[in-house]
Every structure is written in C-alpha cells, then in structure tokens.
Amino acid sequence: STGGRRPALADESGGITPFDLVLTAPILLFLSILFFQFALLLKDQMVVHHAAISAARSARVHLCPPIPSGSREVVERLLGRWPCSDDREKARLAATYALIAVSPTSYDVGCDGGCDVPEGLDRRLAEATATTRASRGWTRQIRYAFDRDNVEVHVEPLLLYLAEGLVSGQIPIPPYRAEVRFRDTLLPFMAPIFGKGRHRDGRPFTILSAEATIL
Fold it and tell me: What is the pTM of this model?
C-alpha cells in the first residue's frame, strides 16, 4: 500500500532539466564547431595540394633545366630564344590563383606582407562565375591570397634524378617539386587546438602545407 501517496515518477524519470541543458549546451556547441572546423581543414587541404600541383606544373614549363641538353640549347638560351624564362614568380602565381578559393570572404583584410594583385582580377572572376553581386567577396579573397605573408611557394628541380641520367650518358629534364604553405584562418575558439599563430589583427590561423612533383 502506498498510503495514498503518488509515486515520485518525475524524480525517477531521468529527464533533462534546465540545469542539465545549461551544462551540456556549451559542450555540444564546441563539439559542433570542432567537427565543422575539421571538415573545413580537410577541404582546404585538398585545395592546397592542388595549388602545389599547379606550382610544380608551372615550374616544369617555365623554369630552364639546370644543365642544357646540348650546344643548340646553349646558343638558344644565350639568344633568348629558348622557351623557358626561369621566372619563379609564375609558379607562385599559379599556386596563388588556386588558393583564392579557400581564402576568407567574411572580412576586409590588409596586406601585411604586401600585395601585387593583377588589376581587374576580382571583376573578371565575378563575371566568369556569374557572381557579380558577390564581387566584394572576391576582392577580399584575392587580397588575402596575394598577401605574401599568407602564401609561401618554393620550387626546385630534383637534381638526384638529373645525376642518375648523367650516369647513363643522357641529360634529361629533371622533375620539379613544389612546396606550398598556406595560412588558413580558423573559426572562433579553435586556436587552442589547431592554431599556429595569429595575424596582426589577432585572428588565429593554422598552416596547411603540401608538396607535389611533376615529371
């Protein structure tokens, strides 16, 4: 017999109280941001790898081989007729164009390391993608990508491959390797986990890097 008393079902039901919600909501929110940030970093890492491939391909086309393959090439180089320029900026430019897509659009950013943005690039990108109304976002992304503090590009020939060719009596064109490092801006509260530094305005970033070799 319960003596007329009703069971305290509410006390034993294990339901969520407002106090439990206050304790768990910040944790759930943090985990959600963490998962979203991790997904963004995976996506951006793929673009950085694509940028490294673009830089290596550009180096393979524009940089002259370390050793001329014959007397004809020596003469043509001296006359400025050989189809290579040794312009490493072309490799950097190729990587920078690829990295515009993962540069931030949500705020104006100054060029801490100096910018050399091609004139009218934001307008051409907006028109080519039919996003003219978002041209302001393109401008922000371009300025971020062309800031030399945010993008580092290094290209070099693989001389070991060249040495192996010389042993066989040939002078091959060596493969070119490119390394790209990109400052990827982080979401709020993610600096303690992924942060590698801060911009001059205090916004945190991590560094994504990739290498690629083109034969």
Answer: 0.78
